[in-house]
Design brief:
Largest sheet: 5 strands, antiparallel
Strand content: 15-25%
Radius of gyration: 20 Å
Shape: globular
Distance between the termini: 53 Å
Structural class: alpha+beta
Order of helices and strands: HHEEEEEHHEHEHEEEE
CATH topology: paralog of FGE (formylglycine-generating enzyme)
Helix content: 25-40%
Number of strands: 11
Oligomer: single chain
Protein backbone atom coordinates (compact mmCIF):
# COMPACT_ATOMS: atom_id res chain seq x y z
CA UNK A 1 0.00 0.00 0.00
CA UNK A 2 2.83 2.38 0.93
CA UNK A 3 4.50 1.61 -2.41
CA UNK A 4 1.32 2.51 -4.33
CA UNK A 5 0.97 5.79 -2.40
CA UNK A 6 4.63 6.63 -3.03
CA UNK A 7 4.26 6.03 -6.78
CA UNK A 8 1.09 8.15 -6.82
CA UNK A 9 2.86 11.02 -5.04
CA UNK A 10 5.82 10.82 -7.43
CA UNK A 11 3.51 10.93 -10.45
CA UNK A 12 1.57 13.84 -8.96
CA UNK A 13 4.73 15.83 -8.28
CA UNK A 14 6.03 15.07 -11.80
CA UNK A 15 2.75 16.27 -13.26
CA UNK A 16 2.91 19.52 -11.29
CA UNK A 17 6.54 20.12 -12.32
CA UNK A 18 5.69 19.45 -15.98
CA UNK A 19 2.76 21.88 -15.84
CA UNK A 20 4.91 24.57 -14.20
CA UNK A 21 7.60 24.07 -16.84
CA UNK A 22 5.00 24.42 -19.58
CA UNK A 23 3.66 27.62 -18.05
CA UNK A 24 7.18 29.01 -17.70
CA UNK A 25 7.87 28.37 -21.39
CA UNK A 26 4.68 30.08 -22.54
CA UNK A 27 5.05 33.64 -23.87
CA UNK A 28 3.71 36.39 -21.60
CA UNK A 29 0.98 37.17 -24.15
CA UNK A 30 -0.30 33.59 -23.95
CA UNK A 31 -0.38 33.72 -20.16
CA UNK A 32 -2.18 37.07 -20.22
CA UNK A 33 -4.69 35.69 -22.72
CA UNK A 34 -5.46 32.61 -20.60
CA UNK A 35 -5.76 34.59 -17.37
CA UNK A 36 -8.08 37.18 -18.90
CA UNK A 37 -10.29 34.56 -20.55
CA UNK A 38 -10.53 32.60 -17.30
CA UNK A 39 -11.41 35.76 -15.35
CA UNK A 40 -14.14 36.53 -17.87
CA UNK A 41 -15.36 32.92 -17.74
CA UNK A 42 -14.89 32.63 -21.50
CA UNK A 43 -13.05 30.05 -23.62
CA UNK A 44 -9.74 31.01 -25.23
CA UNK A 45 -10.94 29.40 -28.45
CA UNK A 46 -14.55 29.15 -29.54
CA UNK A 47 -16.05 27.25 -32.47
CA UNK A 48 -19.02 28.84 -34.23
CA UNK A 49 -21.38 26.74 -36.33
CA UNK A 50 -22.10 28.31 -39.72
CA UNK A 51 -24.04 25.67 -41.64
CA UNK A 52 -24.06 21.92 -42.31
CA UNK A 53 -21.12 21.21 -39.99
CA UNK A 54 -19.07 24.05 -41.48
CA UNK A 55 -17.57 25.92 -38.55
CA UNK A 56 -15.38 28.93 -37.81
CA UNK A 57 -12.88 29.13 -34.96
CA UNK A 58 -12.30 32.42 -33.15
CA UNK A 59 -9.73 33.27 -30.48
CA UNK A 60 -10.07 35.45 -27.38
CA UNK A 61 -7.88 38.57 -27.41
CA UNK A 62 -7.63 40.34 -24.03
CA UNK A 63 -7.76 44.09 -23.55
CA UNK A 64 -4.34 45.68 -23.23
CA UNK A 65 -1.77 48.25 -24.33
CA UNK A 66 0.96 48.09 -26.96
CA UNK A 67 3.34 50.15 -29.06
CA UNK A 68 1.59 50.58 -32.40
CA UNK A 69 3.67 51.39 -35.46
CA UNK A 70 7.40 50.90 -35.98
CA UNK A 71 10.50 52.32 -34.27
CA UNK A 72 12.82 54.64 -36.23
CA UNK A 73 15.37 51.83 -36.57
CA UNK A 74 13.07 49.31 -38.27
CA UNK A 75 14.32 48.32 -41.71
CA UNK A 76 12.10 49.29 -44.69
CA UNK A 77 9.61 51.19 -42.50
CA UNK A 78 7.26 53.70 -44.11
CA UNK A 79 6.61 57.27 -43.00
CA UNK A 80 3.01 56.51 -42.02
CA UNK A 81 4.02 54.15 -39.19
CA UNK A 82 4.98 56.58 -36.42
CA UNK A 83 5.20 54.62 -33.19
CA UNK A 84 2.74 55.51 -30.43
CA UNK A 85 1.21 53.88 -27.35
CA UNK A 86 -2.34 52.55 -27.83
CA UNK A 87 -4.75 51.16 -25.26
CA UNK A 88 -7.57 48.78 -26.19
CA UNK A 89 -10.13 48.70 -23.40
CA UNK A 90 -12.32 45.84 -24.64
CA UNK A 91 -11.51 42.20 -25.20
CA UNK A 92 -12.74 40.64 -28.45
CA UNK A 93 -12.68 37.43 -30.45
CA UNK A 94 -10.86 37.32 -33.78
CA UNK A 95 -10.68 34.60 -36.43
CA UNK A 96 -7.96 32.05 -35.78
CA UNK A 97 -7.63 31.86 -39.56
CA UNK A 98 -8.46 34.07 -42.51
CA UNK A 99 -12.00 33.39 -43.78
CA UNK A 100 -11.81 30.33 -46.03
CA UNK A 101 -13.49 29.77 -49.36
CA UNK A 102 -15.72 27.08 -47.85
CA UNK A 103 -16.89 29.41 -45.07
CA UNK A 104 -17.51 32.22 -47.53
CA UNK A 105 -19.42 29.99 -49.92
CA UNK A 106 -21.85 28.55 -47.35
CA UNK A 107 -22.83 32.08 -46.30
CA UNK A 108 -22.68 33.97 -49.61
CA UNK A 109 -23.59 31.09 -51.98
CA UNK A 110 -20.75 32.11 -54.26
CA UNK A 111 -16.97 32.20 -54.43
CA UNK A 112 -15.07 34.27 -56.97
CA UNK A 113 -11.57 33.45 -55.68
CA UNK A 114 -8.84 33.12 -58.28
CA UNK A 115 -7.27 30.14 -56.52
CA UNK A 116 -9.67 27.27 -55.81
CA UNK A 117 -9.71 25.26 -52.57
CA UNK A 118 -12.00 24.92 -49.56
CA UNK A 119 -9.14 25.45 -47.09
CA UNK A 120 -7.59 28.33 -48.99
CA UNK A 121 -8.41 31.87 -47.83
CA UNK A 122 -11.15 33.53 -49.80
CA UNK A 123 -9.69 36.32 -51.95
CA UNK A 124 -10.79 38.60 -54.75
CA UNK A 125 -13.26 39.96 -52.18
CA UNK A 126 -13.73 43.69 -51.89
CA UNK A 127 -14.47 45.62 -48.69
CA UNK A 128 -18.22 45.80 -49.38
CA UNK A 129 -18.44 42.06 -50.03
CA UNK A 130 -16.59 41.35 -46.79
CA UNK A 131 -19.08 43.54 -44.95
CA UNK A 132 -21.99 41.70 -46.61
CA UNK A 133 -20.58 38.39 -45.41
CA UNK A 134 -20.26 39.75 -41.87
CA UNK A 135 -23.85 41.05 -41.91
CA UNK A 136 -25.22 37.70 -43.11
CA UNK A 137 -23.23 35.62 -40.63
CA UNK A 138 -24.26 37.99 -37.81
CA UNK A 139 -27.94 37.56 -38.72
CA UNK A 140 -27.50 33.80 -38.97
CA UNK A 141 -25.68 33.25 -35.67
CA UNK A 142 -27.03 36.08 -33.53
CA UNK A 143 -23.45 37.19 -32.82
CA UNK A 144 -21.98 40.55 -33.80
CA UNK A 145 -19.39 40.00 -36.52
CA UNK A 146 -17.35 42.85 -37.99
CA UNK A 147 -13.95 43.68 -39.46
CA UNK A 148 -11.12 44.44 -37.02
CA UNK A 149 -10.00 48.01 -36.52
CA UNK A 150 -6.45 48.66 -37.64
CA UNK A 151 -5.34 48.89 -34.00
CA UNK A 152 -7.06 45.62 -33.06
CA UNK A 153 -5.45 43.92 -36.04
CA UNK A 154 -1.90 45.01 -35.16
CA UNK A 155 -2.36 44.23 -31.46
CA UNK A 156 -3.58 40.72 -32.31
CA UNK A 157 -0.80 40.25 -34.85
CA UNK A 158 1.99 41.32 -32.52
CA UNK A 159 0.78 39.18 -29.60
CA UNK A 160 3.18 40.91 -27.23
CA UNK A 161 6.11 41.21 -29.64
CA UNK A 162 7.90 44.44 -30.53
CA UNK A 163 9.98 43.11 -33.44
CA UNK A 164 9.26 43.62 -37.14
CA UNK A 165 7.34 40.33 -37.24
CA UNK A 166 5.68 38.29 -34.51
CA UNK A 167 8.20 35.59 -35.48
CA UNK A 168 11.13 37.87 -34.58
CA UNK A 169 13.38 40.20 -36.53
CA UNK A 170 12.91 38.41 -39.84
CA UNK A 171 10.69 36.04 -41.79
CA UNK A 172 11.33 32.97 -43.92
CA UNK A 173 9.24 30.65 -46.07
CA UNK A 174 8.82 28.12 -43.26
CA UNK A 175 6.99 30.78 -41.22
CA UNK A 176 4.69 32.46 -43.74
CA UNK A 177 3.53 32.51 -47.36
CA UNK A 178 5.09 35.49 -49.16
CA UNK A 179 7.56 36.32 -51.94
CA UNK A 180 10.39 34.71 -50.03
CA UNK A 181 13.02 35.04 -52.74
CA UNK A 182 13.81 38.47 -51.29
CA UNK A 183 15.15 38.18 -47.68
CA UNK A 184 14.53 40.75 -44.95
CA UNK A 185 17.32 41.85 -42.59
CA UNK A 186 19.42 38.75 -41.78
CA UNK A 187 16.81 36.36 -43.18
CA UNK A 188 17.39 33.78 -45.89
CA UNK A 189 15.80 33.40 -49.31
CA UNK A 190 13.17 30.67 -49.56
CA UNK A 191 10.38 29.19 -51.65
CA UNK A 192 7.90 31.42 -53.47
CA UNK A 193 4.60 29.58 -53.96
CA UNK A 194 3.12 32.25 -56.27
CA UNK A 195 -0.34 31.56 -54.85
CA UNK A 196 -2.28 31.30 -51.60
CA UNK A 197 -1.73 28.40 -49.19
CA UNK A 198 -4.14 26.51 -46.93
CA UNK A 199 -4.93 28.46 -43.77
CA UNK A 200 -3.12 27.12 -40.71
CA UNK A 201 -0.16 25.76 -42.66
CA UNK A 202 2.29 27.81 -40.58
CA UNK A 203 2.79 28.05 -36.83
CA UNK A 204 0.46 30.43 -34.94
CA UNK A 205 1.61 33.45 -32.95
CA UNK A 206 1.46 33.66 -29.15
CA UNK A 207 -2.28 34.41 -29.24
CA UNK A 208 -2.87 31.33 -31.41
CA UNK A 209 -3.55 33.20 -34.67
CA UNK A 210 -2.34 31.88 -38.02
CA UNK A 211 -1.26 33.72 -41.18
CA UNK A 212 -1.11 37.20 -39.69
CA UNK A 213 1.92 37.60 -41.97
CA UNK A 214 1.44 36.86 -45.67
CA UNK A 215 -1.06 34.65 -47.53
CA UNK A 216 -3.62 37.43 -48.22
CA UNK A 217 -3.95 41.07 -47.25
CA UNK A 218 -6.77 41.49 -44.72
CA UNK A 219 -9.37 44.25 -44.83
CA UNK A 220 -9.76 46.43 -41.73
CA UNK A 221 -12.69 48.69 -40.92
CA UNK A 222 -10.63 51.91 -40.91
CA UNK A 223 -10.43 54.46 -43.67
CA UNK A 224 -6.77 55.01 -44.52
CA UNK A 225 -5.02 58.30 -43.77
CA UNK A 226 -1.22 58.41 -43.96
CA UNK A 227 -1.12 61.09 -41.24
CA UNK A 228 -3.68 59.50 -38.92
CA UNK A 229 -1.14 58.32 -36.34
CA UNK A 230 -0.13 61.93 -35.67
CA UNK A 231 -3.55 62.78 -34.25
CA UNK A 232 -5.24 59.43 -33.56
CA UNK A 233 -6.82 58.75 -30.15
CA UNK A 234 -4.58 56.75 -27.85
CA UNK A 235 -7.55 54.76 -26.54
CA UNK A 236 -9.59 52.50 -28.85
CA UNK A 237 -8.75 54.28 -32.14
CA UNK A 238 -11.22 53.51 -34.94
CA UNK A 239 -9.65 55.33 -37.85
CA UNK A 240 -10.41 58.75 -39.37
CA UNK A 241 -14.01 59.83 -38.91
CA UNK A 242 -14.64 60.81 -42.50
CA UNK A 243 -16.47 59.32 -45.45
CA UNK A 244 -15.02 58.00 -48.65
CA UNK A 245 -11.51 57.06 -49.61
CA UNK A 246 -9.49 53.88 -49.37
CA UNK A 247 -9.66 51.36 -46.55
CA UNK A 248 -6.77 49.84 -44.67
CA UNK A 249 -5.44 46.38 -45.53
CA UNK A 250 -2.92 44.64 -43.29
CA UNK A 251 -0.53 41.70 -43.12
CA UNK A 252 0.99 41.39 -46.57
CA UNK A 253 0.26 38.61 -49.04
CA UNK A 254 1.62 35.70 -51.03
CA UNK A 255 2.95 38.04 -53.76
CA UNK A 256 4.58 40.61 -51.44
CA UNK A 257 8.17 40.89 -50.23
CA UNK A 258 8.82 40.31 -46.54
CA UNK A 259 8.98 43.98 -45.58
CA UNK A 260 5.35 44.44 -46.67
CA UNK A 261 4.34 41.66 -44.26
CA UNK A 262 5.70 43.44 -41.17
CA UNK A 263 3.39 43.85 -38.18
CA UNK A 264 3.42 47.65 -38.59
CA UNK A 265 3.11 47.89 -42.36
CA UNK A 266 0.05 49.84 -43.54
CA UNK A 267 -1.48 49.45 -46.97
CA UNK A 268 -4.79 50.49 -48.50
CA UNK A 269 -7.21 49.91 -51.36
CA UNK A 270 -10.45 51.48 -52.54
CA UNK A 271 -13.42 49.58 -51.09
CA UNK A 272 -14.57 48.28 -54.52
CA UNK A 273 -11.18 46.66 -55.19
CA UNK A 274 -11.20 42.94 -55.98
CA UNK A 275 -7.77 41.34 -56.14
CA UNK A 276 -6.44 37.79 -55.82
CA UNK A 277 -4.32 38.76 -52.84
CA UNK A 278 -6.93 40.44 -50.62
CA UNK A 279 -9.19 38.59 -48.16
CA UNK A 280 -10.27 39.21 -44.57
CA UNK A 281 -10.51 37.95 -41.00
CA UNK A 282 -13.50 38.33 -38.70
CA UNK A 283 -13.91 39.92 -35.29
CA UNK A 284 -16.73 38.83 -32.99
CA UNK A 285 -17.65 41.34 -30.33
CA UNK A 286 -18.05 40.22 -26.72
CA UNK A 287 -21.28 41.46 -25.19
Amino acid sequence: MKKVITIFVILLVASVIAEEAKNTEEPDATKQQRRAARAANLPVEKTIELENEVTMMVVYIPAGEFEMGSPPTELKKDNDEGQHRVKLTKAFYIGKFEVTQLQYRVIMRQNESKFGGDKLPVENVNWHQARQFLKKVSDKTGLKFRLPTEAEWEYACRAGTTTAFNTGTTLDSSLANYKAKTPYADGVAGDYLKRTNNVGTYQPNAFGLCDMHGNVWEWCSDIYDKDYYKTSPLVDPKGPQKKGGAHVIRGGAWNEKAYKCRSADRNHRLPKTNQAHIGFRVVVEIE
